[in-house]
Every structure is written in C-alpha cells, then in structure tokens.
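Section: Multi-chain targets

For targets with more than one molecule, the full set of components is provided together so that the structure can be written out for the assembly as a whole rather than chain by chain. Components appear in the order listed by the source. The example entry contains two components.
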Amino acid sequence: MATQTESELKMAQLMVEALNLEDMEADEIDPEEQLFGDGLGLDSIDALEISLAISKEYGVQIKAEDEGTREAFATLRSLTAFVENKK
Amino acid sequence: MKIDIIDYETCSAAGLNLKALRTSLKHHNSGLIKNNLPGSDLDTWIGLVEQVSNVNDLGHWQSRNNALAALGYEQGTIRQTVAGLISKYGAARVGLVMGSSTSSIDRTETAYTQLDESGNLTEQFKQPFVHNPHAPSLFMAHLTGITGPSLTINTACSSSAKVFATGARWLETGIVDAVLVGGVDTLCLSVLHGFNSLQLLSPNPCKPFDQHRDGINLGEASGFAVLQRHGENSNSSGISLTGYGESSDAYHMSHPHPDGLGARLSMTQALERANREAADIDYINLHGTSSRANDLIEGQLISELFPGSTQCSSTKAWMGHTLGAAGITEAIIAMDTLNTNIIPGSKNLETLDEALSLSIKASDEHKVCQHVMTNSFGFGGNNCTLLFSRSE
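Its structure, encoded as tokens over all components, is:
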C-alpha cells in the first residue's frame, strides 16, 4: 500500500474513531484506496459522520451538496489534502 | 373500507387548537420563529408551542412530550368524546394508538444533565414509564382511562399517519368499538442537532417545493382523532377514512428511494383500498419537508400519478416538520378541507422547482372537495398515505 504522510495518519485516526471501525487500524488504511463502495465500503451516513468529526477537529465545514465534496471524499489522500487546503 | 372520524383536534405552533389553526391557515400566519432553544445556537427556524412550558403538574409522568400531549388533549371536545365512548362501550372496548419519534427523549436528555455525584438518575427522573419508547401510549392510557389494546408506533415521520391504518384494522377485526389515535413530538436538542448533522436544517423559513429551498424547519405538535366503524355513531364529523396505504422503501436510512418506489406503493394502495381513481382526488397534503431530496422525488411522483385537477400543497411552512406528529397534524389539515371548503396553499412557495410540474401554488383554493389525501414519509423509507372522503 502507498505510504501515509503524518497528516494522512491523523485523518485516518479521526476516521477510525468517528466511525468506530473496529477491524481496522488507522495505519492500515491505504491512502489511495477508494473510501466508498468497493474500497473501504463507507456509505453516505459515514460521510456525514466524518464531516461532523472534521468540523469539530479542524473547524472545516464540508457540505454534502457542494461541488468538490464528491472528489474530496474519493480517498484518504484526497480528503486530507482537501481539509489542509481549507484550514 | 369505511371508518368514521368522530372527532379530531390539533395543537402546534400554528394554533393551540383546531379553531386557532383554521385562523392561521386562513390568514397565512406562520407559527415559525427563529431558533431560541436553550442550549442550542443553531441558525434555523422552529415551530415551538410556548404554552407547553405551563404544563408542569404531571408528577412522575412529566416530560415535554407528555405535557404537549396533555395540552392537546384539553382542546376542543376530544376528551369528552372519548369519555362518552368509554361510558358507552367500557374502557376495555376502546383502543389507543399513538405515534411519536421522540417518545419522551426530551426528559432523558434533561435527566442526563442532572445526574448525581455517582452518575445516577436523581429522584425526579426515575421514571421508567417515561424513558420508554411506549411512553406516549402509557401516558395517554393513564390520562384517558382507556384499557383496551394500546400501541405506540415509531416509524419516524410516518408514525402518526400509520396510527389511522392500525386503528382502522382493529375496528374491522371487531376487537374494539372505538379507537383514540394520536401523535406527539416535541423539540429537543438531540433532534435539532441530529438533523443538523444530517445537514438537513435550513437557516431560513422553509419553502417546500421551491427552486431555492435549502432545508427543513423542525416543529412540535400533538394531535388526536377518534375512529369508529362507519355508521355506529350519529354524532360524527362527516368525514370518513376510506383508504390507506403503507410501504417500506428498503433503500436507505435517511434518503428516500430516488424513484419514489415506496411512496408510489403507499399512494396507489390507498387509492385501491378506497376504490378510487387518481382523478377523484381533489387535494393532496404532501409530505413536502422542503428538503432538496424529498420534494423533488415526491413532486415528480405526483405529476406521474395525478392529473392537473388534483391540487397539492405542503403546509409545513405553518408549523414546521413535526416529525412523529406530522402524520396526524397534516391528516387533520387534509380532512378539515372537507369542512372548511378551503384548500390551503403551499405557503412560502415563490418559484416552483423547475424539475416539477404538479398543481401547486402558494394561494388557497376555495373548493368543495369530496376526496383528499395526505402523504407522510419517514426516515428508513417508511411511507404512509391516507385517503379521507365525505361520509355521505
């Protein structure tokens, strides 16, 4: 799997905690794997949970209806980069 | 099938009782206010029933939900109607079906803010019948003296529409001679913040079906209706429940089926059960929450199923989305058109969503209706449609 940067690891930890991902360690999430559907298998409710956690931790608002939200949520890498840009 | 609606009452931000609601509807006076709930800084509008705060003598039954139920039950002649039926048939031959989504979670929320040093509930909050999904029916059974079958339905926003269908079935099987159906839900932080985390709340007064709608407003309400088999009570309202449809999307926890498959089922079932064509329906009170998703899907479905002669509106701009109480609140608005001969407009509608072409407008229509319908669609994809007709 691709190597996680430090901020990607932090984001992965936030996800694991927010979603109660029991079978997964934060450092096991491939930053280039699809988060939704066939990859990690997250769904739209998970997306809202992550958005809420990101909003609390980083003060960054992610609206489901905004353009760019879809791409942002593609992978751990894209999500981390998206939040970094908005901070 | 034919079930008579003997009596009905409603209590919401749009009116303490049916009489007050009729006035608000007529003058297009909304009961929505900017959110001022203590402990919440959410930028939204709410439909608060201020008088609930004065109902604080319920002892160990105390909760905001029970208080609003008690307040609603004091209105009009509902209490006397039920008392008369208990007298006539005996308490065990009267049934009770309540719908609610919060049940009394408002009280549980408060209880957690006042735990003792060991983290236990303090005395006044040790209320097993209140911190309970069945709380609304437990409380109403206590209040009314009804000892017949009792059920609390929680299917989110379709709860107090389904109560009519359940009540009708009980009457048809003959296990009871009358049924008190009702609904109650109150505003509390878990609900407000829950909807906020789903990104569904609007910072503006809601505009169902509008091109520029941007979310829902929440409200609280209680409502009641008394049902009997057709013809068994000469003192009836002149309105009958002639059809109902119930279905489940089996699609998503908080998003309706994109093609409205479940809603289509509940609407067509209601028509079939009433032996009616879509063209017979004069008015439909739509679920119309003002969410982007619901209104688009419901609006498109209506255009497919109903002709232009079927007038539609959502009345949620008057009192907000009252969740578990929305079913009965809007069933009452729909059935009351058979008494008032006024179809309320879809308040706050300015520009219809360009993807929609159903018969909907902001202004009222004066019309003598024969058959009306109401839709209530709940989270989890639960759908209920009711059809009311003049009893004749």
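Chain B is about 30% helix and 20% strand.
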